[in-house]
Design a protein that fits this description.
The structure is a single chain. This protein is an alpha+beta fold and 180 residues long. It is 18% helix and 29% strand. The chain has a seven-stranded antiparallel β-sheet with strand order 2-3-4-9-8-7-6, with helices on one face. Strands 1-5 form a two-stranded antiparallel sheet. Helix 2 packs antiparallel against helix 3. It is globular.
Length: 180
């Protein structure tokens, strides 16, 4: 899945109207000088609550057992987004990706492959190209207007797309209650 990055112009507009943060007090024994660049915390794009979530912690031992995943997840980064990958050798793989900047409406999804649905209290899209029958499926969960969680499943051998969608749906159902 590729995402659009339309939030940048809006972010720049919002930041242009923000005031300058005061500089933190100087540490004892150091001279305090005011630099021309502002010091302080980086600007916050939008608080979604996803920033506090470790994607690998979204599937605990009981969740992994329920999803048929007997391995620990490995943290990774996908296009700047935090993710976790679980690979069950010879069977399938699951990747959960947290996007703190792209809501469901921002994601580029071919309409012919997406089905609107709901997982728990979150709006969702199930994405699978049934004609390709490539053993892959994704469930995208909307978290507010500006964030999303993507659950991707790929079957070993790239076959049985319906099974991949069942697995993605199971993982989405386990992850969803832990989302803001």
């Amino acid at each position: 899945m590729r995402t659009k990055y339309l939030a940048v112009p809006a972010l720049l507009l919002v930041l242009a109207g923000c005031g300058q943060q005061p500089a933190p007090p100087a540490a004892a024994g150091h001279a305090s000088t005011q630099a021309t660049a502002t010091a302080g915390p980086p600007p916050v794009v939008a608080w979604t609550g996803l920033a506090a979530i470790d994607p690998c912690a979204l599937l605990g031992p009981q969740d992994r057992s329920a999803a048929g995943v007997g391995v620990l997840g490995k943290p990774k980064e996908i296009a700047g987004a935090r993710a976790c990958d679980w690979t069950v050798p010879g069977t399938f793989g699951v990747t959960v990706t947290l996007s703190e900047t792209d809501g469901l409406a921002d994601l580029e999804v071919a309409k012919k492959t997406a089905t609107k649905t709901k997982v728990g209290t979150h709006p969702a899209l199930q994405v699978a190209d049934k004609k390709a029958a490539d053993g892959t499926c994704a469930v995208l969960l909307g978290v507010g207007d500006a964030a999303s969680v993507q659950i991707d499943v790929s079957n070993t051998g790239f076959s049985d797309t319906p099974l991949a969608c069942r697995r993605a749906g199971t993982v989405a159902g386990l992850v969803e209650p832990k989302l803001p």
